[in-house]
Amino acid sequence: MIQQLNVVPFVSVDHMMKLVHAIGIERMLSDIAGYIEDDFRRWEIFDKTPRIASHSLEGVIELMPTSDGRLYGFKYVNGHPKNMKAGLQTVTAFGLLSDVATGYPVLLSEMTFLTALRTAAMSAVAAKHLAPKNAATMAIIGNGAQSEFQAFAFRAILGIENLRLYDVDPAATEKCARNLARHGFKITRCATAMEAVEGAEIVTTVTADKQYATILTDNMVGAGVHINAVGGDCPGKTEIHRDVLLRSSIFVEYPPQTRIEGDIQQLAPDHPVEELWKVITGAAQGRTDARQITLFDSVGFAIEDFSALRYVYERIREAGTYVDLDLIADPDDPRDLFGMLMRAAPGAAAAA
């Protein structure tokens, strides 16, 4: 992509929605999943660090940086579960890509929608490598803002259309069921989490409360299930009972981050886990037994956001879903930033 160095493409919320509709949500989820897999195969070349978090009683604000040596990217994201009661989003985000060679930004984008898309795509990528073969039914426990994206990703990548839905708030389940039924999914509304997992080969937990919780207890999880644990994503916030973890083969993105933020924060620091990038590259095994319980302890990692931003960067010109921002000062003489400022003063042109 060729651009003026001082002008940065900006993808607004409206632009992102238009991009999704121009491409199609399932195609876009599949494409982002492909970019994630490609970047996970390059895992070893990336800068990697646990996200930088600022915690408060109300929630968390985080920065998630990484680089592949050619592009640098970061995401700003928050998680404030109490926002919903005030009519606000629990999670909001924006992100930026920069050219490593110059340090100049090349893309600024909303990432509230894009995070929802990449989180769902990441879940489906993990399930592609870990879930039982020919899985047909998924339980989604927690039917908030992320739930529909998970459903579309699992249909796009694994062909799953049978969904069993449960949320502590029945209105959330009704919202989710209404949104998905109109797109051809087969929906079962469930009264309890126990009921939701009955007959499901894949169980996705995606709740928002910032606290230790046990959405799945040991008696709820039978042999052969794949658990997609999405909602436990910061210190003090979990969804899966420790006994379930001890029975599971656990797969993670980046252990130093997941041991702090994921469900495995309940386990010993040296409890064995496998890194998903190794499964994707063939360096490690995923599911090895039909009765094995696999668990993807998904907390979200910066490389996934990098993949999503890289995808958007490579699609927006064709779709026209961006505007140019005059973001970087560009004086004729790079040493004369002050002169550029003075020439912009009211009446400066007339005086000259």
Describe the structure in your own words.
The chain is α/β, with parallel strands linked by helices. The protein folds into two domains: 133 residues, 2-Layer Sandwich (ornithine cyclodeaminase, domain 1), CATH 3.30.1780.10; 182 residues, NAD(P)-binding Rossmann-like Domain (Rossmann fold, 3-Layer(aba) Sandwich), CATH 3.40.50. It has 13 helices and 17 strands. An eight-stranded parallel β-sheet has the order 9-8-7-10-12-16-14-15. Strands 2-3-4-5-6-1-17 form a seven-stranded mixed β-sheet. The chain is globular, with a radius of gyration of 22 Å. The mean pLDDT is 95.
Radius of gyration: 22 Å
- Give the overall form: globular
Distance between the termini: 38 Å
The CATH superfamily name of the largest domain is NAD(P)-binding Rossmann-like Domain
Series of secondary-structure elements, N-terminal to C-terminal: EHHEEEEEHEHEHEHEEEEHEHEHEHHEHH
How much of the sequence is in beta strands? 15-25%
Mean pLDDT comes to 95
Percent helix: 25-40%
- Identify the CATH class of the largest domain: Alpha Beta
Total domain count: 2
> Main beta sheet: strand number and arrangement?
8 strands, parallel
Tally of helical segments: 13
Q: What's the CATH topology name of the largest domain?
A: Rossmann fold
Quaternary: single chain
- Which class best fits the helix and strand makeup? alpha/beta
The unreliable regions are none
For the largest beta sheet, what order do the strands appear in spatially?
9-8-7-10-12-16-14-15
**Total strands:** 17
The CATH architecture assignment of the largest domain turns out to be: 3-Layer(aba) Sandwich
